[in-house]
Amino acid sequence: MRRRGFAVNDQLTETGLTAVGRARETAAGGEPSCRLTAMPTARFDRDLPPSRVGAISAAVTRIEEALTARG
Predict the structure, then answer these.
(1) In which domain of life is the source organism classified (predicted)?
(2) Which domain holds residue 50?
(3) What is the count of structural domains for the chain?
(4) Residue 1 is assigned to a structural domain of this protein
(5) In which band, very low, low, confident or very high, does the pLDDT at 11 lie, cut at 50, 70 and 90?
(6) Cα–Cα distance between 15 and 46 in angstroms, integer?
(7) Is 57 within 8 Å of 22 (Cβ atoms)?
(8) Cα separation, 3 vs 14, whole angstroms
(9) How buried is 59 (Cβ within 10 angstroms: 0-12 exposed, 13-18 middle, 19+ buried)?
(10) 51 within some domain
(11) Residue by residue, what is the 3-state secondary structure of the chain?
């Protein structure tokens, strides 16, 4: 995850389900977390194009901003 900026869980916890996630930035001492999207494995592209990684990163940024705004 650190090298690529995202991680893939390809049916490791549930047959037929694949998830792609990205770590959420936290303040020093903050609780680590991540955001992910899950899909049927049949819809997962193993050659995950950079545009999808960018879309996931943008979604995580929007979630972080919304959570920060809520306090």
Answers:
(1) Bacteria
(2) 7-24+32-70
(3) 1
(4) no
(5) very high
(6) 16
(7) yes
(8) 25
(9) middle
(10) yes
(11) CCCCCCEEEECCCCCCEEEEEEEECCCCCCCCEEEEEEEEHHHCCCCCCHHHHHHHHHHHHHHHHHHHHHC
Q: How many CA atoms lie within 13 A of 37 on its CB side?
A: 13
Would you state the pLDDT for residue 16?
95
Residue 49 placed within a domain: yes
Give the pLDDT band (50/70/90) at residue 40: very high
Q: What is the pLDDT of residue 49?
A: 66
pLDDT averaged over every residue in the chain: 79
13, 7 Cβ separation under 8 angstroms = no
